[in-house]
Design a protein that fits this description.
Length: 486
């Protein structure tokens, strides 16, 4: 049996001669051929709503498969969400597959070409007698499209500083944080930026696994010293996910010497890891302490507001228009990583393209659950379908409605008492008046027993701050506002 992944790539390329290429690219994204037994071929895909499309086109797929497996009678489709994200290397890289085939015209030519495709998305860089193999940089990762939140501000600023002046003050730059929080994005963005500014610099970006593989190979060929000599020539050395050096003693040894060479030569080094340097499992403490010679910055899970900004950026990058509520919902319910957030947006995009409708929050909650097994998704945060909408024409009507919502008397809310049960609806009313009636601070103050404009300002600021910082409160205000029609 041929290796199924390249074989499957051939199938898709041929399929793209029968149905539009764009459709193949969308609907077979993250798909692969799981197995072929006597009469059945099993295709796996990461998304439930692709299943149907694949089934509907199984006749074409069967025709193609039968050229290699004449006995095949039927196609089965399985859905496996884990094909998304980290495991995506197990499935077809559509962009690459079709970009590299676009210049060919006949399908048989394409088929032969695909077999030759390199599996690794890497680039070869020649310098003198040496060939460096760097992982291909993703040009979609830039420092500009990285959304800066408090949690990542330092890491971003340090990356920018390194990009401006590689080998300068921040050497090495060490970025750590848990999975899906933008480390790889920052590393690649920095590499992209350096190359933009200094096209002649030799920038090598490797995953730690790539590096280990090269060292192991060199050990077998007794060429350890050569590896060190070779890498000494790079201007910028970037190693992603350095925690994988754990237990790799020989690689650590080379790494240590290389580190010193590069450091002394004022060559920029950038590392990422899932933990701070001191927690790395390295045999020698001197390796860890080397990391502290430059700049250490962490990335953490962003707050709600930053997540919302990220979802906006990701949606617009994906070219999909999503309602503010939907974006809010996604940002609110993303609980671990930005990769998860991005996954949902891409799924929504596909869903909108396929069905022509924007999915309900229920549907999105469903997706989030699938991506994120066992997580409690707040299905109804928008209060979808629970309340009727109340028409609000005047500020007076607004205070009444807000008071009713909080089960208090309007007179007290408008009055002077400072107990919490009146303060909250009072401040919320002021906030909503300013937002929806564009009322002046003084006009609002007048309505509330002739208060000073500064106390109205204070109240509205307080509410804005709380909405930003407390998702529960944001949700509450959201539900309230959705019940009103201004
Ligand atoms: P890590 O390497 O930390 O596991 P990645 O860099 O692969 O995470 O990030 C996962 C995804 O989330 C990427 O697509 C990245 O673009 C996106 N991402 C993470 N943080 C941000 C951010 N602050 N702004 C924009 N995109 C982000
Ligand atoms: Mg990463």
């Amino acid at each position: 049996m041929p290796d199924l992944l390249p074989f499957w790539e051939n199938v898709l390329v041929e399929l793209a001669t029968k149905i539009p290429k764009g459709k193949v690219m969308t609907w077979f994204m993250n798909s692969s051929l799981k197995e072929v037994n006597d009469t059945t071929a099993t295709i796996i895909t990461s998304r439930i709503f692709y299943e149907e499309f694949i089934k509907n086109h199984s006749k074409h797929i069967l025709d193609i498969l039968r050229k290699t497996y004449p006995a095949i009678q039927k196609i089965e489709v399985e859905v496996d969400g884990s094909l998304e994200g980290d495991n995506s290397h197990m499935s077809v890289d559509m962009k690459k597959l079709f970009a590299e085939n676009s210049s060919n015209s006949s399908s048989s030519e394409k088929t032969t070409n695909v077999r030759k495709l390199p599996k690794q998305s890497s680039v070869r860089i020649k310098k003198g007698n040496e060939t460096f193999i760097s992982k291909m940089l993703d040009s979609n990762y830039t420092l500009r499209n990285f959304v800066i939140g408090e949690e990542s501000q330092l890491a971003h600023a340090a990356s920018q500083a390194v990009a401006n002046k590689p080998g300068g003050a921040y050497n090495p730059l060490f970025i750590y944080g848990s999975v899906g929080l933008g480390k790889t994005h920052l590393l690649q963005a920095t590499a992209n930026e350096i190359l933009r500014k200094y096209p002649n610099k030799l920038v090598v970006y490797l995953t730690t696994e790539n590096f280990i593989a090269e060292v192991v190979d060199a050990i077998q060929k007794r060429k350890m010293e050569q590896v060190r000599k070779k890498y000494r020539q790079v201007d910028v050395f970037i190693l992603d996910d350095i925690q994988f050096l754990a237990g790799k003693d020989r690689t650590q040894e080379i790494f240590f010497h290389l580190f010193n060479d590069l450091y002394n030569g004022k060559k920029q080094m950038i590392f990422s890891s899932d933990r701070p340097p001191m927690e790395l499992e390295l045999t020698e403490d001197r390796v860890k302490s080397r990391f502290s010679m430059g700049m250490i910055a962490d990335v953490q899970f962003p707050d709600f507001e930053t997540r919302l900004a990220i979802s906006q950026v990701k949606a617009s990058e994906a070219g999909v228009m999503l309602e503010e509520d939907v974006l809010n919902f996604i940002a609110y319910n993303t609980q671990h990583s930005i990769r998860e957030l991005q996954g949902v947006i891409l799924q929504l995009k596909a869903m909108i393209e396929l069905t022509g409708t924007t999915p309900t929050t229920e549907k999105i909650a469903d997706m989030l659950r699938k991506l994120n097994k066992g997580v409690d998704i707040k299905n109804n945060i928008m209060g979808v379908g629970i309340q009727s909408v109340k028409k609000i024409s005047t500020m007076q009507e607004l205070v009444e409605a807000v008071s009713e919502h909080y089960h208090t008397e309007t007179d007290e809310v408008l009055g002077k008492k400072r107990s919490r049960m009146y303060m909250i609806p009072r401040q919320v009313s002021m906030y909503l008046m300013q937002k929806h009636f564009n009322a002046s601070l003084q006009a609002i103050g007048d309505l509330f027993s002739g208060r000073d404009h500064t106390s109205v300002l204070h109240a509205t600021k307080k509410i804005k701050k709380q909405i930003k910082e407390d998702p529960e409160f944001w949700k509450e205000i959201k539900v309230l506002e959705e019940g009103f029609e201004f």
